[in-house]
Structure formats: structure tokens, C-alpha cells
Automatic annotation (TrEMBL), chain A:
<dbReference type="InterPro" id="IPR001457">
    <property type="entry name" value="NADH_UbQ/plastoQ_OxRdtase_su6"/>
</dbReference>
<dbReference type="Pfam" id="PF00499">
    <property type="entry name" value="Oxidored_q3"/>
</dbReference>
<feature type="transmembrane region" description="Helical">
    <location>
        <begin position="88"/>
        <end position="111"/>
    </location>
</feature>
<keyword id="KW-0812">Transmembrane</keyword>
<keyword id="KW-1133">Transmembrane helix</keyword>
From TrEMBL, chain B:
<keyword id="KW-0520">NAD</keyword>
<feature type="compositionally biased region" description="Basic and acidic residues">
    <location>
        <begin position="153"/>
        <end position="166"/>
    </location>
</feature>
<feature type="domain" description="4Fe-4S ferredoxin-type">
    <location>
        <begin position="99"/>
        <end position="128"/>
    </location>
</feature>
<feature type="binding site">
    <location>
        <position position="114"/>
    </location>
    <ligand>
        <name>[4Fe-4S] cluster 2</name>
    </ligand>
</feature>
<feature type="binding site">
    <location>
        <position position="63"/>
    </location>
    <ligand>
        <name>[4Fe-4S] cluster 1</name>
    </ligand>
</feature>
TrEMBL record, chain C:
<dbReference type="GO" id="GO:0009060">
    <property type="term" value="P:aerobic respiration"/>
</dbReference>
<comment type="similarity">
    <text>Belongs to the complex I subunit 1 family.</text>
</comment>
<dbReference type="InterPro" id="IPR018086">
    <property type="entry name" value="NADH_UbQ_OxRdtase_su1_CS"/>
</dbReference>
<feature type="transmembrane region" description="Helical">
    <location>
        <begin position="187"/>
        <end position="206"/>
    </location>
</feature>
<keyword id="KW-1278">Translocase</keyword>
Automatic annotation (TrEMBL), chain D:
<feature type="transmembrane region" description="Helical">
    <location>
        <begin position="71"/>
        <end position="92"/>
    </location>
</feature>
<protein>
    <recommendedName>
        <fullName>NADH-quinone oxidoreductase subunit K</fullName>
        <ecNumber>7.1.1.-</ecNumber>
    </recommendedName>
</protein>
<comment type="similarity">
    <text>Belongs to the complex I subunit 4L family.</text>
</comment>
<dbReference type="GO" id="GO:0048038">
    <property type="term" value="F:quinone binding"/>
</dbReference>
<keyword id="KW-0874">Quinone</keyword>
Length: 171, 194, 331, 111
């Protein structure tokens, strides 16, 4: 086994294990931190797939942004400030059945398909090519994504100001 | 907008003023001393530990009486006639053995009232302030230099002399009485004769 | 094996630097207050004081609160330190040493340092203590907010430099050609970069939570913020990570604005060893300024902190970014 | 059997990454279906998005998709960020109105 294989197995175990802890943990904040380890593991998998820029973006956006938002959401909804909080699960049987069936089907499909593979391109960097692509072929999605983010920010701010307005009315 | 710019300008200016002040203090020598190695000179007349030149003490007990907290304890024994205790450095003759001269520094409140009354200037406050102790009893300073044997000897002597004196006194008194009685009897005789 | 030695070099540097910086902090604070500071341990000006303190911390009992979430509580300091140590791998210490000369250097650094926020929340929540939680939430809010002006000012440097690789950025700043005597540092190449540098410096002070933005651990109101429940070597690692973070951001500022390992005298006094010395001097200068500021300025309030970020720094950094881009296009 | 599996395990290729992503997808599905807490459901959605991203990037490395796959993954990340911001604002609103974050207790259409 070479180093790549060792790193791959190590971090896929971390990723999947942390995801499992996230799903089955009783404490919802533990779930959130398990998600952090899972996302960081996925970033390492991206590096193994020669996608260094995406890996850094994954860390910056998911771990540094979305996860902190989620944690803030947890703390602000007063569910997580105490250790005693118990997570409630419903539909355990159908959910696990569905998940198991999905896994089996997908793995079967992946394993039996004969993929049209090409020899992996040895790239030293992706940033330059990604930038060229972003500014040429993908310029429209890029602008739309920017507008979408702007709208999302404005919407989120508007909603949270309405939230304070509602609270003030109540008082 | 103008307001904001002005505010920002004031912010920067005041920050730099403050940083200038701290930089000046960074460069100037420190005002503290590394205590056990370096220390300030005490001012003259600083009140601290009491000290007694026992050789100069004449046993007048003025300091004991002056002390408001009774931290000085003196016991004296009068010297017998056959010993000459000498003179103090100020020229006063010494007449008492100082058998105890204890100062309890744990009681002392540093009022300095014992120092001025001393006629021979033998009690004084010395510039020493590091005499903390683990045991409170160690703060009881004994200045008397007489050994226990000497003290008993001196006491016995003094008692003997006292007895002698008393005996003499008594004798004298008896003699006087006898004389008086003699005189009166003689006078009576004269009267009866006369 | 050689790789392992190569990888532990920055660790030695960080530990040595942290010992020195903590000593320096105490000396600077003492001298600013007209005191002397530690003088006894180790002879000359008490240089061994922090080593003694570290030995004491190692011996101390490691206390974990009964109701703490044990795994998270134990791992938080290590995640924090790992995040800030991972970021050191892209810092070019001299023209001969860089951990990994990857093409997305600055981006990677910013991405990895965003883990710091999470590990602080981790430790804060796991302590199960209200001071810790308040401090942790404040830290998270502060670091997330100040990441925006940091990234904007870094981006405006990247517009001028045209590369994300910190080694390339350092290399292009060697020599002194501007006006005949000024070194080719980026801050002299574009007048708007001075504004960008001021914004960058304010943001890194806030990101490494130093005074006047030390709300996460403001002693007088929150005991010690997120590290309230920590003791012994775990607390020591928090301290180490904090100082490492300070050095990391200072060195980043040195690379981005002041030429990294480039000598200020052109080719005179350059070379790998001198480069390392110049680089550390530049970084330590920023660290010293942060210490100097700590003993000058009072602390901001939480709402003031947020107001400075969102109403002044972020708009100014955006406008400045556009101006820098325009300047680059015209000249 | 052993002879076949060992070299397959020793060299991680496309299928290995796809299997990891399949596992993540089913775990995300599980979280979405079985938890009552809105934020937990959101975390499940993030996991599903990530499993899709692993697929995209794996394809971009091992097939002729080249960098296009990474490009799409980048847009997925952007959209996930926008989604998280809006979703959490909605959750906070919901909490202030219904005083709960359990999905099955939020059943009235009028606020």
C-alpha cells in the first residue's frame, strides 16, 4: 500500500465515521462538531482527487462559514446550551430501511458499471485553469451565483430584522 | 460623511498620541527598585524597630511609663554600695542593675513616645524593618545583658543590703527611741529633782 | 525521516518564539508601566521566566469539569493549535525554506485559519460554563466578521501581486528600484495599499483577539472567556496557539506588504540566512506593535466592535479594492 | 477471491470515492428522514450536497469531464452557502414564532 491508499482509507474512515456519529448522536452539538470532522475529511479527499482549490474552498465555506452558522442557529434556539438536551428521532425503521436500500443500490450500480475512464491528468495546479474557465465559459453562472449570494444576504438580513421587529411588538 | 471622516481622523490622532505616551514611558528608566538587592534610604526619623543601648540605661523607667501600649517591661535592682556601675556616655551616674529590659515589638505601635523622655538617649528607633518571624515569641526583644546567675546574685546582694539597711534603720530607730526614752527619763528625773 | 525533520522545524520556531514573546510581552508591559518585570529567573533580565512557567504548567493537574463534554473539551486546544500550525506550512521563512510552495498559498492559509473559530467554540461549549460559552460566541462573531475585511485587504494585495503563492509574492519584492532607493515592497507600489494595510492590521489585531479587541477573553467581564475552565498544559496550548496565531498573521502581513524575506537594502545583506532574519524582524515588529497597543488602548464594547467592522472597515475595504484595481489598470 | 480483492483495495480509484459518497448520501438521507430538529435536517442536507460534490470531483479526475466537474462543485458550494444563510434565518423566525424547532409541531399555515 502506498501513501495515497493509506491517506485515502484513513480519511474515508474519518469522514464516514464522523458522519455516522453526526446522524446517530444524542446531543445535537456533538452532531455539529462531528459534521466538522466529516467536512474536513471530505476536504482531504478532494486533495487526493487533485482539487486543491475546491478543498480550500470547502474548508473556508463549509467549516468556516456554514458550520458556524449552524452552531449559531443551535445556540440561538436554546436547544444546545445545556448538556442534557436529548435529540428526538422519528420514523427510525423506514428511514434506516430506505438508507440501507439506497446504499446497496448505489454500491451495486457503481461496482457493476464499466466506467469510461481516462488516465488521470497530472496537474500541478488548478487555480489558473479554473480562473480562465470561470471568466470564459462559466461567466454567466458566475454572475448569477454572485447575484444569488447578494439576494440571499439581503433576504437573511431582512428576515432577521423582521424577527427583532416582531419581538419588539410583543414587548 | 464629513462627520465620519473627522471622527476617524480624531481616532487615529488620539491613538498615535496615546502610543507616543506609552513609548516615552517604555524608554524612561523604571521607578521601582528590586527590593532585596536595592532599597530606598529611609528618611531620618523614620519609625521602625526599637533599640536600647543597655550600657547607657540608668533604669529610670521613664520610657516604660511613656509607652501607651505597655510594650516595654523594665525591672531594676538597686546597686549595692560596694559596686560602682560607672557612668553613662552622657555623664549620668548609673545606680541600678537592669535585670530585665523587654520590648515586645508585636505590641509596639511605633508612636515614638518612648524616645524623647529618655534622659540618656539610650532608647532609639533604628532604621531596620525586616524582622518578621514565624514565631510570635521571637518578637520579644530582651536587652538586659545580665545572666541569670548574676541577676540572682545581684538580687541577693541588694536584699542583704536592704536588710542591713533596714536592720540599721531599725537599730537607729531603737537607739533613737532609747535615747529619747533616756532623755525623757532624765528630764523626768530633773523635773522630780527640780 | 528527512520530511519529518523538515516538518518539525516550524514547531521548534513557534515554541521558541512563544517563549520569547511571552517574556517580551511581560517586559514591554512592565517597562511601559515604569516597572521592571521578571528579573530573577535565569540571570539577564529574567530570560528563563517563561521556561520555568512552562515547566510549572506541564506539572500541573489537568482538571476537567464534571459536566463537561469530555472528548470535545480535551481535543479543542489541539485542534486550535493544529489549525494554526497547518497554516505555517505555506509561509516562506526564507528563500530556502517553505513548508509547501503550493499555488493557492494565501487561500489555503485563510481557509485553515477559519478552523480556529470552530475550535474556540468547541472548547467554549464543551466547558459547560456560561463565561466560556459567552466568550466563545463572542469570539465566533468577532472572527467571522473580521474575516471579511482581512480577506478583502488580502485580495487587494493579490490584485497587485498577481499570484496566490506566497513564495512568488516574496520573490517579486526583492531589490529596490522605486524612486531609486525604496525597496520593491508592495506597500510602496500602490498608494491605496497603505489603506489596505491599515485595514489589514486592524483586522489581524481583532482576529488574534488582542487589545483593543480582546472581548473573547476580557478578564474584567468574562473571567477568561473560552479558556475559563482550562488549566495546566491544555491552557498552555491555548496560550501557545494564541501567540502562534499572532505570529502567523504578522508574518502574513510582512509577506503581503513588506516584502517577506526581501532585504530592505536591495541585494546587500540578502541570502537565505539574512532573509530569515529580516523576515522574523518584520514579523516581530508587528508583534511588538500589538503589544505596545495593548498597553495604550482601552477595550471596545461588543456593539462598537461590530459597528467598526460592518460600517467602516468593510465598506472602506470594498471601495479601496476597486480603487486599487483601477490604479493597476491605469498605471 | 482474496487475490482479486487485495489489489482492488490497494489502489483507490474512482469506485472507492463513489462508495464513500454513497455512504455519506445514505447517512444524510437518514438524518433528514429520522430527526425532528430542523437544524439537524439541514445538516443532513449539507451531507447529501457534499456526497454529490465528491462524485463530481471524482468524475472530474478519472473521466474526460476534466475541470468541468470541479467547476460545478464550486457552484454547489456557493449555493449551499446561500441556502444555509437563508435557511437559518427561516429557522430563527420559526423559533421566535412557534417557540420550537421540531418539524412535526410546526403545522399551521397561518403565522
Amino acid at each position: 500500500m502506498d501513501l495515497t491508499a493509506i491517506v485515502f482509507y484513513l480519511f474515508s474512515i474519518v469522514t464516514v465515521g464522523a458522519a455516522a456519529i453526526m446522524v446517530f448522536s444524542k446531543n445535537i452539538v456533538h452532531s455539529a462538531f462531528a459534521l466538522m470532522f466529516s467536512l474536513a475529511g471530505i476536504a482531504v479527499l478532494y486533495v487526493l482527487l487533485y482539487a486543491d482549490f475546491i478543498a480550500a474552498t470547502q474548508l473556508l465555506v463549509y467549516v468556516g462559514g456554514i458550520l458556524i452558522l449552524i452552531l449559531f442557529g443551535l445556540m440561538l434556539t436554546e436547544q444546545a446550551v445545556t448538556q442534557k438536551f436529548k435529540a428526538v428521532t422519528v420514523n427510525m425503521l423506514p428511514a434506516s430501511l430506505l438508507a440501507a436500500v439506497t446504499t446497496v443500490l448505489l454500491v451495486y450500480a457503481y461496482a457493476t458499471t464499466s466506467w469510461q475512464m481516462v488516465m488521470p491528468e497530472e496537474r500541478s495546479e488548478t487555480v489558473y485553469d479554473l480562473g480562465i474557465l470561470l471568466m470564459s465559459d462559466y461567466i454567466l453562472p458566475f454572475i448569477i451565483a454572485g447575484v444569488l449570494l447578494l439576494i440571499a444576504i439581503v433576504g437573511a438580513i431582512l428576515m432577521s430584522t423582521r424577527l427583532t421587529a416582531i419581538k419588539n411588538e410583543e414587548q | 460623511m464629513v462627520q465620519t471622516l473627522k471622527k476617524s481622523w480624531t481616532t487615529f490622532k488620539t491613538i498615535f498620541t496615546g502610543m507616543g505616551v506609552t513609548m516615552r514611558h517604555l524608554l524612561q528608566p523604571s521607578v521601582t527598585l528590586r527590593y532585596p538587592e536595592e532599597r530606598d534610604e529611609l528618611p531620618s526619623g523614620a519609625r521602625s524597630k526599637l533599640f536600647v543601648h543597655i550600657d547607657d540605661c540608668i533604669g529610670c523607667k521613664l520610657c516604660e511609663r511613656a509607652c501607651p501600649v505597655n510594650c516595654i517591661a523594665i525591672e531594676t535592682v538597686q546597686a549595692t554600695k560596694d559596686v560602682d556601675l560607672g557612668k553613662t556616655s552622657t555623664g549620668n551616674p548609673k545606680r541600678f542593675w537592669i535585670t530585665t529590659f523587654n520590648i515586645d515589638m508585636s505590641k509596639c505601635m511605633y508612636c515614638d513616645m518612648c524616645v524623647p523622655p529618655c534622659p540618656t538617649e539610650c532608647i532609639s528607633m533604628v532604621p531596620e524593618y525586616e524582622y518578621s518571624e514565624y514565631d510570635r515569641n521571637n518578637l520579644l526583644f530582651q536587652f538586659s545583658e545580665l545572666s541569670a546567675d548574676k541577676v540572682t546574685e545581684v538580687k541577693e546582694k541588694a536584699e542583704k543590703e536592704q536588710e542591713e539597711k533596714q536592720r540599721k534603720k531599725k537599730e537607729a530607730a531603737r537607739k533613737k527611741k532609747a535615747q529619747k526614752a533616756d532623755q525623757t527619763s532624765k528630764a523626768k528625773q530633773k523635773n522630780s529633782e527640780g | 525521516m528527512a520530511l519529518l525533520i523538515f516538518a518539525t522545524l516550524p514547531l521548534l520556531l513557534i515554541v521558541g518564539y512563544a517563549l520569547f514573546a511571552i517574556w517580551l510581552e511581560r517586559k514591554v508591559s512592565a517597562h511601559i508601566q515604569d516597572r521592571l518585570g521578571p528579573m530573577r529567573v535565569g540571570g539577564w533580565h529574567g530570560w528563563a521566566q517563561t521556561i520555568a512557567d512552562m515547566l510549572k504548567l506541564i506539572q500541573k493537574e489537568d482538571i476537567i469539569p464534571t459536566n463537561a463534554s469530555r472528548f470535545l473539551f480535551k481535543s479543542a486546544p489541539f485542534v486550535l493549535f493544529a489549525a494554526s500550525y497547518a497554516a505555517f506550512s505555506v509561509i516562506p521563512f526564507s528563500s530556502a525554506y517553505i513548508g509547501s510552495s503550493i499555488n493557492i498559498g494565501v487561500f489555503y492559509l485563510l481557509a485553515v485559519t477559519s478552523l480556529l473559530t470552530l475550535s474556540v467554540i468547541m472548547g467554549a461549549w464543551a466547558s459547560n460554563n456560561k463565561w466560556s460559552l459567552l466568550g466563545g460566541m463572542r469570539t465566533a462573531a468577532q472572527m467571522v466578521s473580521y474575516e471579511v475585511p482581512t480577506i478583502m485587504s488580502v485580495l487587494s494585495v493579490l490584485v497587485v501581486a498577481g499570484s496566490l503563492n506566497l513564495m512568488t509574492i516574496s520573490e517579486m519584492q526583492t531589490g529596490n528600484d522605486i524612486l531609486g532607493f525604496l525597496p520593491n515592497w508592495l506597500i510602496f507600489q500602490n498608494p491605496f495599499l497603505i489603506v489596505a494595510f491599515i485595514i489589514f492590521f486592524i483586522s489581524i489585531v481583532a482576529e488574534s483577539h488582542r487589545v483593543p479587541f480582546d472581548l473573547p477573553e476580557s478578564e474584567s467581564e468574562l473571567v477568561a472567556g473560552f479558556q475559563t475552565e482550562y488549566s495546566g498544559m491544555r491552557w498552555g496550548i491555548f496560550m501557545l496557539a494564541e501567540y502562534a496565531d499572532m505570529l502567523l498573521l504578522s508574518l502574513l502581513g510582512a509577506v503581503l506588504f513588506f516584502g517577506g524575506w526581501a532585504s530592505p537594502f536591495g541585494s546587500y545583506l540578502s541570502g537565505p540566512v539574512w532573509g530569515f532574519i529580516w523576515f522574523m524582524l518584520k514579523g516581530l515588529l508587528f508583534v511588538f506593535v500589538m503589544m505596545w497597543m495593548r498597553w495604550t488602548l482601552p477595550r471596545y464594547r461588543v456593539d462598537q466592535l461590530m459597528e467598526i467592522c460592518w460600517t467602516i472597515l468593510i465598506p472602506v475595504s470594498f471601495i479601496n479594492f476597486v480603487l486599487i484595481a483601477l490604479w493597476e489598470m491605469t498605471f | 477471491m482474496e487475490l482479486m480483492i487485495t489489489p482492488w483495495l490497494a489502489e483507490p480509484g474512482l469506485v472507492h470515492f463513489l462508495i464513500v459518497s454513497a455512504l455519506l448520501l445514505s447517512l444524510g438521507l437518514m438524518a433528514v428522514l429520522s430527526r425532528r430538529n430542523v437544524i439537524m435536517v439541514l445538516m443532513g442536507v449539507e451531507l447529501i450536497l457534499n456526497s454529490a460534490n465528491i462524485n463530481l470531483i471524482a468524475f472530474s479526475r478519472y473521466t474526460s469531464l476534466s475541470l468541468e466537474g470541479q467547476m460545478i462543485a464550486l457552484f454547489v458550494i456557493i449555493i449551499a452557502a446561500a441556502e444555509a444563510a437563508v435557511a437559518l434565518a427561516i429557522v430563527l423566525n420559526m423559533y421566535s414564532r412557534f417557540n420550537t424547532v421540531h418539524l412535526d409541531e410546526i403545522d399551521s399555515l397561518k403565522g
